[in-house]
Amino acid sequence: MFDNSNELSPWDRDHFFHPATYAGAHARGEMPTRVMARGDGVYITDTSGRTSLDAFAGLFCVNVGYGRQKIAEAIAKQAKELAYYHAYIGNGTEAPIRLSKMIIDRAPRGMSRVYFGLSGSDANETNIKLTWYYNNVLGRPEKKKIISRWRGYHGSSVMTGSLTGLELYHNAFDLPRAPILHTEAPYYFRRADRTVGEEQFAQECADKLEDMILAEGPDTVAAFIGEPILGAGGIVPPPTGYWKKVQSVLEKYDILLIADEVITGFGRLGTMFGSEHYGIRPDLITISKGLTSAYAPLSGVIVSDKIWQVLVQGSDQLGMIGHGWTCSAHPICAAAGIANLELIDEMGLIANARDTGAYLRAALTEVLAGRRNVGEVRGDGLMAAVEFVEDKDDRAFFDPTKKVGQQVAAALLERGVIGRALPQGDILGLAPPLCLTRGEADIIIENTASAVDSVF
Ligand code: PLP
């Protein structure tokens, strides 16, 4: 824990309801807030003047790095010229129109339109509604269930909290169970029998999905949602062949595929989209974090032409599609998005994510090799995870109450590097800004090794 308490601390303690908070500990002053003040590249500085290397890019989102003047200026220019006008039919502003074209130019083949929201959660709400609308228009009112995966993260609103397959996000909230179902997480390290190869495990996951579809009745299942690589649920890349097998099950039963690319969209895996990286052919794609590098809140659903044609048919029959927010397609956020996508191209960040990501993961694997408590180093692109175990040889997991992952993250922070203990399991997550240099990667690697040694 890091304390830079100042005159704001009483207000923070008594009035600010933080997202994802331990309310009691915060209210009692046991969890002081580290208040951040400035950022530059991969570095962030708090109000006491202490600087850390942010190896988690905020929350997997500040992909271009902090302090980019180009984006700040684009936001200011838009705010001065026209801070807001709505985009309900017959109205709009320039920036979201331009941005939709830029996104479709970069999107996987077959994509046609972008619906803009403000958060990954609301974009996934839009996905659920579009999926239901689609099946209603096609005269299939029973085809409504959505299959998600244990350990998937898709948001924390009412429906998307339910989609999220982490119990922590369900506890005591009475989120709707139906029409959401969860299937096996493709988590080879934790779930697979050691005698089973990766490809065979991928087949088992696809078989379980098919069994679930058959048990529920294929005519009742509308869509499957998944992150190309599990993110908050452990940074777990799919086992070999997983997406191909899943895709063929879904096609067999005419079930839509929603690729949740909130983390992977716009470069994190070293390709523009994770779908491209793993050969996924989605019907809908969720985007958010990397779209503006979180300089302004913006999300989107990229809609395939297949879905769009049905929406057109539905709207011709039923009238206006009654879905939208006051701030959908907000021009200031869209201006940030345009500048951000331009910067990703200008700085060559996608190639850098691929190269520096490979370097970071290889060096981390090498430096941590042989340590009894490091079960696995894994990841893809600029996403890496270190999973801790009691004993690597027999894959014995720690008692979760020991919070070993959090201890390592705290030790890393003391050394000046921000990583993140992922919420389920003893996993240290690393997802630095895509502008990370090899020198900065070395700082992360050295300090991770030192933090691990200080805990075990
Ligand atoms: N989908 C994925 C894959 C995410 O990682 C997240 C957030 O971490 C979300 C959706 C939800 O996005 P938000 O927090 O903006 O609502």
TrEMBL record:
<dbReference type="InterPro" id="IPR049704">
    <property type="entry name" value="Aminotrans_3_PPA_site"/>
</dbReference>
<dbReference type="GO" id="GO:0008483">
    <property type="term" value="F:transaminase activity"/>
</dbReference>
<dbReference type="InterPro" id="IPR015422">
    <property type="entry name" value="PyrdxlP-dep_Trfase_small"/>
</dbReference>
<dbReference type="Pfam" id="PF00202">
    <property type="entry name" value="Aminotran_3"/>
</dbReference>
<keyword id="KW-0663">Pyridoxal phosphate</keyword>
<keyword id="KW-0032">Aminotransferase</keyword>
<keyword id="KW-0808">Transferase</keyword>
<dbReference type="GO" id="GO:0030170">
    <property type="term" value="F:pyridoxal phosphate binding"/>
</dbReference>
<protein>
    <recommendedName>
        <fullName>Aminotransferase</fullName>
    </recommendedName>
</protein>
<dbReference type="InterPro" id="IPR015421">
    <property type="entry name" value="PyrdxlP-dep_Trfase_major"/>
</dbReference>
<comment type="similarity">
    <text>Belongs to the class-III pyridoxal-phosphate-dependent aminotransferase family.</text>
</comment>
<dbReference type="GO" id="GO:0005829">
    <property type="term" value="C:cytosol"/>
</dbReference>
<dbReference type="InterPro" id="IPR015424">
    <property type="entry name" value="PyrdxlP-dep_Trfase"/>
</dbReference>
<dbReference type="InterPro" id="IPR005814">
    <property type="entry name" value="Aminotrans_3"/>
</dbReference>
